[in-house]
From TrEMBL:
This is Uncharacterized protein. It comes from Picrophilus torridus (strain ATCC 700027 / DSM 9790 / JCM 10055 / NBRC 100828 / KAW 2/3). InterPro entries: NA-bd_OB-fold, WH-like_DNA-bd_sf.
Length: 268
């Protein structure tokens, strides 16, 4: 009997996923990232910075040093092995995760991404560093190919002739087509500035609870104002960038929704 091969899992940083806003027009299961990867499955690694579990699902946040990946695993027989691992871990633990991307787009065309884990493993810091440096190498190779792709009359065949792989060449052409105005140099500077030897700075799990509780307790009936959330977060020593990340995460998980521009309501 011939069994179908598992689809390739891509190694990318969380920033590349977060900045994605293109869905493959021929198959909406696939997203196209700023570096041109056409994917629906990822292999990621990092440190657990948040975990929450209820009777239906387990949610976790994994930081790779540049941002966060968001995991959602439903409690059913199909995910039993994955959930056993997720139930056993806590903040600060290091994980590798292979899984499929899930997404939705709101009325303002903003995408929210999460990963449905298929395989989860607790890893060592050496393994975490290996993932980081290999992903850095892959990303730099793609960025160099993209730089070449922006020259006149460059095709994927031109790029393979320069020594790039077929995947790197095709990704570069897609990046040029769909993300012509993306700040590729800024992205290169960002990923090159991270010191992966120092580990990943931990954040308080309470950050998510603080934001969610504030929205629940300060809704005047028309939703909780964004500016008020930011002020309350600042008093709790949470940066505005972190507030935006948490709001995106809570929205992607269905815990809150934006009832009107910059006003949020809790669903639980």
């Amino acid at each position: 009997m011939n069994f179908p091969k598992r689809e390739r899992s891509y190694w990318i940083f969380s920033k590349e996923l977060k900045d994605s806003n293109i869905i493959d027009e021929n198959d909406d299961k696939y997203i196209i990232t700023p570096l041109g990867s056409r994917l629906r499955r990822l292999f990621i690694a990092g440190s657990v910075t948040y975990k929450n579990s209820d009777d239906k699902m387990i949610k976790a946040t994994v930081s790779d040093g540049l941002g966060s990946f968001y995991l959602t695993s439903f409690k059913n027989d199909y995910h039993e092995e994955v959930n056993d691992v997720l139930n056993s871990i806590g903040t600060g633990d290091l994980l590798s995760v292979m899984g499929k991307i899930s997404y939705f787009k709101n009325n303002e065309d903003i995408f929210y991404f999460s990963i449905v884990p298929e395989l989860v493993s607790v890893i060592s810091d050496n393994e975490r560093r290996f993932w980081s440096y290999r992903t850095l190498y892959i990303s730099r190779r793609k960025l160099m190919a993209i730089r070449e792709a922006f020259k006149d009359d460059v095709t994927s065949e031109t790029l393979t002739g320069l020594g790039y792989s077929i995947d790197e060449a095709e990704s570069a052409i897609r990046a040029k087509k769909y993300y012509n105005n993306y700040d590729f140099n800024g992205y290169l500077q960002m990923i090159s500035s991270i010191n992966f030897e120092n580990g990943i700075q931990q954040e308080s799990q309470n950050y998510y609870d603080i934001i969610l509780d504030y929205i629940k307790n300060n809704d005047d009936g028309t939703g909780c104002r964004y500016d008020d959330i930011v002020i309350a977060a600042r008093n709790a020593k949470i940066s505005q960038d972190k507030v935006d990340e948490i709001l995106n995460y809570l929205g992607s998980q269905g815990d809150i929704y934006e009832v009107s521009l910059k006003r949020y309501k809790a669903l639980i």
